[in-house]
Design a protein that fits this description.
Largest sheet: none
Number of strands: 0
Helix content: 55-70%
Strand content: under 5%
Number of helices: 7
Structural class: mainly alpha
Order of helices and strands: HHHHHHH
Length: about 210
């Protein structure tokens, strides 16, 4: 099912729990990665310094050695901090394509739980979770098929509520019970018809005894 041509959402930050944690964790990993890289670079420089000292070079204070290293490589942190907002902004836009589509699904499920009428979910152009949209709308269509209603077959019609304020598991249980009851009734009719046919075609015991006598 193709994405609907709907108006873009006004906000990119729509879910603080998901998007906030994702942005915070990305920033943490970003700083941790550059911190580990920084320490690895300094340890490599320090190993070179120790080798030079063993070869006869003059020893230096650790503060002087680290200060020189900072002066030579502090531009790495400047670039990392400058690029971080760009990375977070791009991640925010990408997460919006995932978290944003969850809102109509959540509202549809809440409406189903409350026993209200539900229409098909339509996602915006560029949103992800298109496969979930197709599966969810097929589920709604299957519910419409199980309900005896004139709106059956209309993929964009609203789903009527079976029981007022009934949760989804209760509605499904009622549908299954109705279907089983109908199947049992049909089986009972077939069995009675078969039994009546046997009574008409098979002679009774008393008739058979009379014929023998």
């Amino acid at each position: 099912m193709a994405a609907a041509n709907l108006q873009p959402r006004k906000r990119l930050f729509v879910n603080r729990e998901i998007q906030g944690r994702l942005l915070a964790r990305t920033a943490l990993y970003w700083m941790l990665c550059h911190g580990v890289l920084w320490m690895a670079m300094f340890l490599y420089r320090y190993a070179e310094y120790r080798g030079a000292v063993q070869a006869g070079a003059a020893p230096r204070l650790f503060a002087d050695l680290y200060g020189q290293f900072v002066n030579e490589h502090f531009s790495m942190w400047v670039c990392a901090i400058a690029i971080l907002p760009i990375v977070l902004w791009d991640l925010l836009k990408f997460s919006h394509r995932v978290v944003g589509p969850l809102i109509p699904f959540q509202r549809a499920i809440e409406s189903l739980t409350a026993g209200e009428k539900v229409a098909d979910v339509r996602l915006r152009q560029g949103d992800l979770l298109s496969e979930l949209q197709s599966s969810f709308n097929q589920y709604l269509a299957s519910l419409r098929t199980m309900v005896s209603d004139p709106l059956i077959g209309d993929s964009h019609s609203e789903l009527p509520a079976l029981t007022s304020n009934a949760p989804v598991p209760t509605i499904v249980a009622e549908l299954i019970e109705m279907q089983l009851a109908e199947e049992l009734r049909q089986m009972d009719v077939e069995i009675q018809a078969a039994c009546s046919g046997d009574d008409q075609t098979t002679p009774s015991r008393s008739s058979a005894e009379q014929m023998v006598s």
